[in-house]
Amino acid sequence: MQQTQIGVLAIQESHFTDTALQGLENTFNGRMQILNSIDETNPNSKGVAFLLNKQSTAWKDTKTVEIVPGHALLLLLPWHNDQTLNVLNVYAPNPHNENETFWSKFHKKWKDDGLPKIHFLLGDFNMVENSIDRLPVHNGPQGPHESLAKFKSLLRLIDGWQHENPDIVAHTWHQNQCDIYSRLDCIYTTETIFKHTCNWSMSPPPILTDPDIVNIRVFNIDMLYIGNGHWSVPLFTLKEEKIMKEQIYNSFKTDLIVVIRDYAKKHIPMIEKEIQHKISQLEEVLNNTPDPIKKLS
């Protein structure tokens, strides 16, 4: 996370036991905050978590809402102007009927319970919406697809990666045994937030696991742009005797100013004189032009 400057990392199938979680927090104390959700009835399966980079997020003021233990965790991350960036991390059930019910319950919950607005819906959806997102290409069950589509429509969410790359086919998961490719992992966002994102991409994880990581950069448009700045002389070079002995560089700036001033002193009066001459010519043309009305009379 430090090397790639990741601020928030959402993971699924975390399988974090209390012992493992405590070990990670001890190892990365001061650098990373872990927010975890597990299914207490089956802690060795499922699980979703957020890993927050303490150096680039307001982690102390971050809040979470556990929607479905081990399956859905909502992150309320302080953003700017007293607003929060709300991210829902999901690990959807694999069976088709459970997957369909999963999204139907979400639709009802957000419609009836007044839960916070979602800016990003991401995670392992265990389904693909379009046949092109699976290889070999074929259509999956309509139930989960329609249920998810209804939930997205309620929140007005779009598939950010597909919106950014409409002509590119890519997959995040590969089953070696049957040689099947699927894009099971997605990031959905609103059209407004999408305008403030960039660098949508997929990349292999740094450890031996699946699936690939879906990456995104979110920026605050109210922040000032900070560029690379002007070039400056490396301080260590000032200690180099060979460089400091070159007197020509010491007097270059002074000599250049003298040359420019002399040139300007000589040529500015000539330019002003030419301008006045052009103005006089223009006035003469305007004054000597016959009046068309008088000519007709």
TrEMBL record:
Gene3D superfamilies: Endonuclease/exonuclease/phosphatase
Top-rank lineage group of the source organism: Eukaryota
InterPro entries: Endo/exonu/phosph_ase_sf
The protein's name in its UniProt record: DNase I-like protein
Organism: Sphaerobolus stellatus (strain SS14)
